[in-house]
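Lecture 7 notes: from sequence to structure.
We start with the chain below.
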Amino acid sequence: MNSIRTKLILTCTLSTAILLALLGTGLYLVMYHALNTQFNRSLLSRAVAAISAADWDPKEGFNLDTDVEYSGDSEEPLGGGYLEIWDAAGKVVYQSKDLQGEDLQRLNLNNAQTAFLDLDLKKKHDLREVFTTFSVKSGEDEDDQSAAAASQPAPVQTFYLAAARSTDPLEDTLDILAWTTGVSCVAATLLSALLMAVVVSRGFRPVRDVADQIAAINAADLSARLQPPGQAAELVPIVEKLNGLLERLNEAVRREKALTADMAHELRTPLAGIRTTLELSASRVRSEQEYRQTIDGCLAMAIQMQTMANNLLTLARIEGGEFLYRLRDCRLDLCVQEALAQHTSLIGKRQIKLQHEPFSACLVKTDPDALTLIIRNVLENAFTHVDTGGTVIVTLNGRPDGALFDVRNTGSRISQQQAAHVFERFWRGDEARTAGEAHTGLGLAIVKNIMGLLRGRVIVQSEAGGWFLIQLWFKNSSEALP
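Predicted structure tokens for the same chain:
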């Protein structure tokens, strides 16, 4: 299993190692350049000292002061080194004894030019050479020079000088610097990894605290909430989202428990009625008409239970996203007329005064089966809850952007504050009046869910002892409501 802690430690350690490697490399390069520059300057200073001490005589050649004589002996005042001088024709006019007959490298340079190069002579250490040119006057007596000065200037001759020195001390210093820098970077990386492990472990402590709080929540009681860690602001949004999830889970469990209780209550009444009717019918021999009445009564109660089951299944499909619908052009006016015709017997039985103007053609964009279910449930709710002999008014208004369908009935027994509960499952404003009817308490819940799915709008208004109004707004296109 991938560990964020391990990834974080490895990532930070790798980043630190790369950073230290870059810094170490940069430091080494700076020191490398500085030490090489210092070495070259020292070598050039030796060459300049040798030139200053050189005494040229055409007959005797070069004479150098022994204090600046380059030798391989490191105890010399100027340290170990090698020296070789050529004349303009390329003839060696001076050579250090320690060269033992080997020549330093001679370059073709113009006057006043200087060059550095690395050498590898036989039986010698690695050397670095500085090659330059210089000019001297012929070595004449001062009296002769004074006498000749009046007639013509003293002759000047150009020579080439190569001074070399072993680079072993420089390379040793650079090796020590490289090892020191590398070991320091490795040690710093390991130390940073250890510190990062400690810091990350302490930093993840609030996560473990939140995990412990989650583990302590009892599945039977989801009312507990997580406390956000005070020292970890990054976890506060996560804790808030988890608390929101717990709230929704708790609400879902509460609704499930309420649904189970309501279903048991709603099914108990028709089942008890069926059992009582059948037991009473079986208590003695009855006539054919009495058996027919018993069968009709049981059939009505069975239809009531089947309607409840179908409504619950419809709600479950809508809430689970499994309700399939297809938007198409539908005649809302024809759907309302068909639904009214299906309730003709109930209207006559309860002596309801139905009022509506002639419906004009009204086209909406919706699913035809869903539209039929919505209109039927809304009208059934009005015809069921209107007072006996009361009035139901149906209004349909077509508009360019949709249609407005109103159903209002007299005899409302709920207030405006209670009106919002009519969309809850099995909620009834007048339990005593509807206890004996085939109303399941699921119709308006289905209406609200389907209208939301079809991007419609539902408004309910109620006045206790007065009118109860349900208003549906249908769009005539597939666009969402603003």
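Points to note: The domain at 325-475 is CATH 3.30.565.10 (Heat Shock Protein 90). The longest strand covers residues 126-137.
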